[in-house]
Structure formats: structure tokens, C-alpha cells
Amino acid sequence: MTNAQQIIDREKSAATSIISYAIDFTRELREKVSNICEASSYRTYADMKGTFDFIVNCSKQEGEVIVKIIYFVSDLRVRWHTSLQVNISDDGKTAEVEGYIIVDNKTGFSYENVELGFAIFELPSAPAYATTGYGAPPEATAQEAAFPAALRQEMLGELDRLRSVQPKSGLKRTQRMKNLML
Amino acid sequence: MKANVPTRKKIKLNWFKTKCEFKIERKIEIQYTASNVSSNKLKWDTIVKYVLIKQGDLINKDIPSNSPMTLYKNNMPFLFLNTAESSGTKINSENMIDDDVIVDDDIVNLEEGEAKVTYEDAVDPKEHIEVRTRFDKISRKITVENKLDNNIDLTLDFKQTKDVSFVKSDPEPSIIEEPNYKYNLSIPSEKKSSVLFEFQAKIVTRVTKIRPEFLKPPKT
Fold this sequence. Notes:
The structure holds two protein chains of two kinds.
Chain A: H1 2-21, H2 27-42, E1 78-88, E2 94-105, E3 111-115, H3 142-146, H4 149-164, E4 172-173
Antiparallel strand pairs in A: 1-2
Chain B: E1 2-5, E2 9-30, E3 41-44, E4 46-53, E5 68-73, E6 76-86, E7 90-93, E8 96-97, E9 101-111, E10 116-121, E11 127-146, E12 152-159, E13 164-170, E14 175-177, E15 180-187, E16 192-210
């Protein structure tokens, strides 16, 4: 992991240098370079590319084998939420409802033609630290150590977001847009 | 559902499009305590909720709570809110305070009843608690003003408590479900509607006093 982090840091520093010094790219090239640089700037350990070795046992001596690889991406930086657009009819008794799913990909990767599945789940609540001594948190457990700190932070951030959507004592006020005839 | 998900971008996918029945539910909940029932003026909020009755494609779909919901009228967005929960047949918006429906609650008349005095033991044996209980008759007028440009229907829901009980009202309640007295009001645009209530309030005051036998005789 240390080596991977070093590679990420080196890439980030190179990207920063390119952004700082290179202003003379042509339009198409500029877009490509800025995409690469941006990808490097956002990259974390979870984005590192790896290689797979496949051993295919088959009876044929020679021939073409089609291998289909299906993998599941679990990344808290890929999020989704739904949004409703309600068009109320003139009589105010019926409405046309349009539902949208908005997918926000904050990772450094683009996913082409992927099958998307949407699930609602609740993250486990924050560990209630069994305080040792005078309220000091216990030493990091093996499970905590196995979790990258950034990912843990991300999960806690998500948890805070979920908490913030809990109903509050104060209600929101309607702020209806009035039609202005300018 | 298959899609291209580019890096650091948001994509918007079409999920469904259907027609459904649409309702607006407005409610004013009123409940007094012994201390606020005799206030000169009180303000209450009108709670509004938008309800979509599921039809067609929507029946089998659950909308996650807290999803943004934008209401459009004449192709113009006019209200931004969130969904609260979706049941088998309905999608409810969150409850909001309707700023365009104003509720004023004013005192009309207050008749203080005669206080009945009883005594309770205090912690100190030389003292006792004087309990003064009286039943006041209070009239209050609740006025609801519709500042919207369309007619609205709403429910005014008075809930009686152990201290403030319902005596009568003008108009009579539409529905009585003890301890709730509900009034179905229909108010045209820019108009007001009023309900005159008469309540009986139990007002109790407690004062700790030295028992008379322990009072020092006045110096002569």
C-alpha cells in the first residue's frame, strides 16, 4: 500500500506541474491532458489498476474461448438519488410525474455501458467506543486497521449525511415562486 | 438498466413517467395549555402536504424518502420540496408550513370563575400549600386567511386537553372524534374564514404558606 501511495503522490505532483506550466496546448489536446491530470488529482488507493491472471481449463487443444467478466464495483464515491418532477394539470387534480435517477460518479474512472443496480441500505451506526480510562478511544482494532482511513472517513461522512436527513423539530416553509410578468 | 457513467460527472437517467391523482392536504392543529389559553393573541401554522396517488407505472415503485421533488405549474417550477415516505398507494411530500395561509387566534372574552381553595401538605410541617382552582370561560376567535390565488380546503383540528375543554363553537364541528374537534373549511382566494370557540379552562395556582398556627402574633 505504501508503494501504491507513493505512485499516487508522484502522479499527483506530475499532474500539478503539468497544470502549472503547460498553457500552450491546442484545444483537443488540452481537454485530453486536463482529463488525465484531473484523474490523477482525484485518484486514491481505491482507484489503482490491477491485473488478473486467468487459467482456463478446457478440453480443446486450441480454439477461441469467450470469457465474460462481471465484477461488482463497491465505491462510496459512486452515489445515486432519485428526483421527481411533478407537472400539475390546470384543474389541480391530476399530475404527470416524471421520475429520474441521478448517478454521481466521483471516482477517477469512467464506466462504459455498465449495468446499474440501485439499492437502499443503511450504514451501520458509528461504533460506540467502549471508553477505556478517561474517555479515550480504544486502540485501533484489526478491523479498523484493515479499513483505509480515507474510506472510513468517507463512510462516516455518509453517516452524518443520513443523520442530517432525519426529521427535525422545525418544519420547512413553503417559498412558492410567484409568476412575474416582466 | 445500462448506462455510461463518466468520471466526475452526474448523469440523469429516465426512470418512469406516469399520470396520477394529485391532492393537497392542509391542516391547522390547535391545542391550548392553561397558560396560553388566555393570551391576547396567538399564531398557529398551517401544515401543508402534497399527496400523489400511485397509478400505472408508479404502483410497483418505491420512492426513497427525502428525494427532491419539484412541483411545476404551467411548465414553471413553483415549489421545491422533498418526499417523506411512499406507501403502496401514495407518495407523500414532507410536511411544510404554508406561508400563504395565515392563522390568527384572538381572545374575545374571558370570564374568570370563582376560585375554590383547598390545602395540601408541604414538605415543611409548619407550611401548607394553598391550591386555588377556578374554571374560566374563555371565548377565542380563530381566523384563517387564504393569500393564495385559488380556493383552498383545509382541516382545522382542535384537540382538547386536561386543562382546556371544549364547550361550544360557531360553526359546529364537522367531525367530533374525542378529544379532537375538526372543522372542514373551504376558503376562496384572498378571503378569510373564522371559527368562534368557547372553552372551559381549569386554572390552578399553588402558593406555599406558613400554617396560621405557626404565624407570629403581631406586635402590639
